[in-house]
Amino acid sequence: MRVNVIGGGLAGCEASWQLLKRGIDVYMYEMKPLKFSPAHKLDTLAELVCSNSLKSNDVTTAEGLLKQELRQMGSLLIKCADQCAVPAGSALAVDRVKFSEMVTSKLIQLPNFHLIKEEVTSIDPGDYTIIATGPLTSEKMCSCIAHLIGSNSLYFFDAIAPIVTYDSIDFNSAFIQDRYNKGTGDYINCPLNKEEYDKFYSELVSAETVELKDFENRKVFEGCMPIEVLAKRGYDTMRFGPMKPVGLIDNTGKTPYAVVQLRRETNNYDFYNLVGFQTNLKFGEQKRVFSLIPALRNAEYLRYGTMHKNIYINAPSTLNKYSQLRTNPNIFFAGQISGVEGYVESIMSGLLCGINMYRMLIGKSLLEISTDTMTGALQSYIATASSDNFQPMSANMGLINNLGYKIKDKKAKNQLLSDRAMASITELVHNLD
């Protein structure tokens, strides 16, 4: 049996390995070195294009737990990363050239691996295919994907607003109401008086931002507007835009001076995004400045806002819970193009696609992973998040099922979540094949 894997990045390589070691012939299509994206430089596979860090190894952190789950599930790329590690404190950082070369060597030494160095310009819907072309997918490949899923479900730039947890919102300074009462109470409103707005505005326009790469800069700002850029256009610009108070009445019976609205991120009531607050502020600055909004003074951030070039699909409307195309189960999407964000998350996505493609080919039921685990929780989020405002997501402890009781000590809570997750993964691996 043959599977086509399009893309030789982290997800494509991990998916290939999971298929290869189970005896499936893999034909990987990779356009390097014939054609490079603006960020890629190496001729080898699994190139790390930005940082060389895969973040924390501490299992009480989201990234650390996800890596440990992947180790248990037999991830090639995490094993290679461990073997190519360079000193980085509690983080897993790698020699990126050595890492890329090692992954490439592991794959090409297998007789059922076939590397085809060309750009894909068409996809046969009858072929078994894993699309793992990443956030810098070529224009021709984008056209192929748009033909498969519809251009309305394909995004080219990432303008992400922060997401906060429901439990961390201060409802003494917030109220639930839809504008002009047109709705069913879907928005949480965070009002500011003039003094509070003045302070927020002053700090926002002077806050530090992340420097964009040359190939990201121009088009990002044409396609979206960071809240801090909007603010610099004038004192009242936000009050006539994302912070407009019209149609809202606060708990005192008055219209606030300005309002930040929070909108549900999932079908549950756990996470809310700051509407219209896509931003390029540094993460620490987001925490500092947005804490000046009274209802968010103690907010816990599930995800901070980011802005960069990022090609991805609207996964909740396009893929099922196994990352298969809803309209064609022969085709899986893996990695950042599927809506996960980050190195380790892409590896996880590739691993699951590889295993589930194999299980489909041999007639087994596809793998479902408990949302008590980081792997299962992140995969579930990608499939079930709101399709109206879908944005990529990275691993976060807030995604995992709650313990069912509250623990004030965050480290202790995360340790219990981690212990439960690893017990679930151990049981899964025991029954995997």
- Give the number of domains: 2
And the CATH topology of the largest domain?
FAD/NAD(P)-binding domain
Portion of residues in helices?
25-40%
Radius of gyration: 22 Å
Known CATH architecture of the largest domain:
3-Layer(bba) Sandwich
Gap between N and C termini, in Å? Answer: 18 Å
Residue share in β-strands: 15-25%
Average of per-residue pLDDT values: 90
- The CATH superfamily of the largest domain appears as FAD/NAD(P)-binding domain
The first-level CATH class of the largest domain is given as Alpha Beta
H/E element sequence: EHEEHHEEHEEHEEEEHHHEEHEEHEEHHH
Widest β-sheet, arrangement of strands = 6-2-1-7-17-16
Work out the helix count.
13
Secondary-structure class: alpha+beta
- Seen as an oligomer or otherwise, the chain set is single chain
Question: What's the β-strand tally?
Answer: 17
Q: What low-confidence regions span 5 or more consecutive residues with pLDDT below 50?
A: 214-223
Characterize the biggest β-sheet. 6 strands, mixed
The dominant shape is globular
Name the features:
433 residues, alpha+beta, FAD/NAD(P)-binding domain, Elongation Factor Tu (Ef-tu), domain 3, 2 domains, six-stranded mixed sheet, six-stranded antiparallel sheet, 17 strands, globular
What does this structure look like?
The chain is of the alpha+beta class and 433 residues long. It folds into two domains: 2-158 and 309-430, FAD/NAD(P)-binding domain (3-Layer(bba) Sandwich), CATH 3.50.50; 163-300, Elongation Factor Tu (Ef-tu), domain 3 (Beta Barrel), CATH 2.40.30. Helix content is 33%, strand content 17%. It has helices at 10-20, 62-72, 76-83, 96-108, 139-149, 194-205, 214-223, 227-231, 283-290, 315-318, 343-361, 374-384, 410-430; strands at residues 2-6, 25-29, 53-56, 85-86, 91-94, 113-116, 129-131, 154-160, 163-165, 175-176, 187-192, 258-264, 271-274, 301-303, 306-313, 324-325, 328-333. It has a six-stranded mixed sheet with strand order 6-2-1-7-17-16, with helices on one face. Helix 1 (10-20) packs parallel to helix 11 and helix 2 runs parallel beside helix 11. The chain is globular and about 70 Å long.
